[in-house]
Amino acid sequence: MSETDQDLTVAVPFTAADVDLAERRCLHQGFFRLEELHLRHRLFEGGWSGRVVREVHHRHDAVGVLLYDVERDSVVLVEQFRAGALDDPDSPWKVEVVAGLVERGESVAEVARREAMEEAGCEVGELIELHTYYPSPGACDERVTLFCGLIDSRGLGGVHGLDEEHEDIRVHVLPFTRAWELLQAGRLDNAMCLIAFHWLAGERASLRARR
C-alpha cells in the first residue's frame, strides 16, 4: 500500500458540515438551474479558507446504458444532435450510449429500461450496474449511474425518440470490434462511452462464456 493510500484510510474525511455556506443565489432557472454560492471551507492544514464564490449547474441525475448483444458480440449506440457540441470541429451530432435523466420517483434501473425503449426501441434483459460518478463535480452536481444492458439486437435500427422532447435519434448496431475502432479513433468521445466500453473490453470474454 502506498503512503497516499495509507493517508486516505486513516484521515478523518471532511463532510458538508465543514463548509460554511453564507449565500446561495439563483442566477438562472430553466430546464436546468444555475446557482452562485458564497462559502468558505475547512483547510487540510487547519483553519478556514477565505470567502470563495462558485457557480454550480444543477441537473437531474442521469443514467447511461451500453446495450450489448452477447450472442452476436454487437453493441447498440444512438446518434443525435447535442447543443453542447455545437462548436465541435467535426460535428455536433454525437454517437453515444442510450441515456436519460432520472425523474422523481424513478429508480435508476427503471430509467435504463425506459430510455432503451424510447431511444432504441430495445427491450433490456439483464442489467449490470457498472459505476456511479460525478462527470464534473467542480461545476455540476449531476451524478451518473452507468449500466451494461444485455439485449437481443435483431431487428433494431431506424430513427427513434419522443416528439414532445424534440428527439431525433438514429440507432446503430455495430460489432464490438468496429465500435472499439471508433472509440480508439476518437469518434466515441464522451465519458459514458469511454467508461462503459473499457469495462466491456475487460468483461466481454466472461459475458460471452455464459452462453
From TrEMBL:
EC number: 3.6.1.13
Top-rank EC class of the record's enzyme: hydrolase
Reaction it catalyzes: ADP-D-ribose + H2O = D-ribose 5-phosphate + AMP + 2 H(+)
Name of the protein this chain belongs to: ADP-ribose pyrophosphatase
Ranges where the Nudix hydrolase domain occurs: 58-196
Keywords noted in UniProt: Hydrolase, Magnesium, Metal-binding
InterPro entries in the record: NDP_pyrophosphatase (IPR004385), NUDIX_hydrolase-like_dom_sf (IPR015797), NUDIX_hydrolase_CS (IPR020084), NUDIX_hydrolase_dom (IPR000086)
Entry similarity comment: Belongs to the Nudix hydrolase family. NudF subfamily.
Names of the cofactor(s): Mg(2+)
Keyword Hydrolase attached: yes
Function: Acts on ADP-mannose and ADP-glucose as well as ADP-ribose. Prevents glycogen biosynthesis. The reaction catalyzed by this enzyme is a limiting step of the gluconeogenic process.
Gene3D superfamilies: Nucleoside Triphosphate Pyrophosphohydrolase
Secretion signal, residue range per the UniProt entry: none
